[in-house]
Design goal:
By secondary structure, the protein is of the alpha/beta class. Helix content is 58%, strand content 13%.
């Protein structure tokens, strides 16, 4: 059985994955995989450079400023990048042999089709905004821009099989225990 973990930016997906790792569950990180593949895949590098321009890479590193400018300029630009990167990540996950994956854009990317069950990690909006501002050192406006590019928590919650509330109050480990028991059934 393949399990997907998702949730909006700042919900605490990475923290939940760390808690799972202490239980011996390795989770494929789609975001890290995408960054690795963008850096190491000649095919992706060639396609992104054709799409965005010669300043897409500086040496072996992605020019994040140029890519972000292109990405945020229009929805069609974002989709064009997604059509290059997402299929490579999908294949990499399947090749990994791992059963668990984490993706902030599980539904938006279509990678949810590769999993049997989905866990959504949720947190109150203000907590999410503060977490991202502190973690990334960016403005509230930047965080809200990124949030607008993702499905809302409510949309994801409706699609998911299980929910972990990560509000700093609810017992994370107890919630994980309940979900793991349900998955075993």
């Amino acid at each position: 059985m393949k399990i997907g973990i998702t949730g909006g930016i700042g919900s605490g997906k990475s923290y939940i994955c760390q808690r799972l790792k202490t239980r011996g569950i390795e989770v494929y990180d789609c975001d890290s995989a995408a960054k690795r593949l963008i850096r190491t895949s000649d095919s992706i590098r060639r396609q992104l450079t054709q799409l965005i321009g010669e300043d897409t890479y500086i040496g072996d590193s992605l020019n994040k400023v140029a890519v972000a400018r292109f990405l945020l300029a229009s929805e069609s630009n974002a989709q064009a990048i997604d059509h290059i990167v997402h299929p490579a990540v999908f294949q990499d996950f399947m090749d990994s042999g791992m059963q668990w994956m984490e993706s902030a854009i599980l539904y938006e990317s279509g990678i949810n089709k590769l999993v049997d069950r989905v866990i959504v990690v949720t947190a109150p909006l203000e907590i999410r905004i503060q977490r991202v501002m502190q973690r990334d050192g960016i403005t509230r406006e930047n965080v809200e821009q990124w949030m607008q590019r993702q499905w809302s928590q409510e949309e994801i919650r409706k699609q998911a099989d299980y929910e972990i509330v990560n509000d700093g109050i609810a017992d994370i480990d107890a919630q994980i225990d309940i979900i793991l028991e349900k998955i075993k059934e």
